[in-house]
Amino acid sequence: MPVFMEKQIIKKLKNLADPEVVKGMVRFGISPNKTLGVSVLQLRAIAKELKPNHCLASKLWQSGIHEAKILASMIEEPSQVTEWQMDSWAKDFDSWDVCDQVCLNLFCQLPFAKQKCFNWAKRPAEFERRASFALIASLAFKNKNLGDKDFIKFLPLIRKYSIDERNYVRKAVNWALRQIGKRNLALNKSAIKEAKQIMRINFKSARWIAADALRELTSEAVQKRLKK
Questions:
Q1: pTM tops 0.70
Q2: Residue 31 pLDDT
């Protein structure tokens, strides 16, 4: 049954393919390799028609198709995901949007997510390291079970890797810092303090990460929302 469903779903994705959208995705740094040009909104609509299915999610991921991998993260059963699968999928990341969608849709729900943030930060591959910080950002945004102390522990990691000049890493490090700082007022103060320390690091990426985070975290809009 899953094999049949996999073929039907991939056929549906290919019917939705839009080469012009792919061209636009390339401008945003997404590889056109095995990319169809199906939007996340379209993928969410397909996911709503399907029940969570671990076997089907695995098949879709193994297809290597860009959009099928994102869809896999939407229909995967969190209770069936192992640490081995998390590591395997992270090694397969080859674009920032697949990395971010998998972290937001799936990985941030898993019990070993916190530890993977520390593990993946040590990985030299660009998208595996990005996954570390995309996952921190996703946890800060979506996971209601973690406390402030959990996020405080991520701040030294953010500082340590703020010197990674690679575009997809530095943007994820910045995202993680900003998202922690928008979680609540106490973490906002901690993130601002951390950003000021990062600003003193003599690396272009560190200064950019800090300046951009401070701009948002000290903004009137963020402060007003957190003080409500």
A1: yes
A2: 87
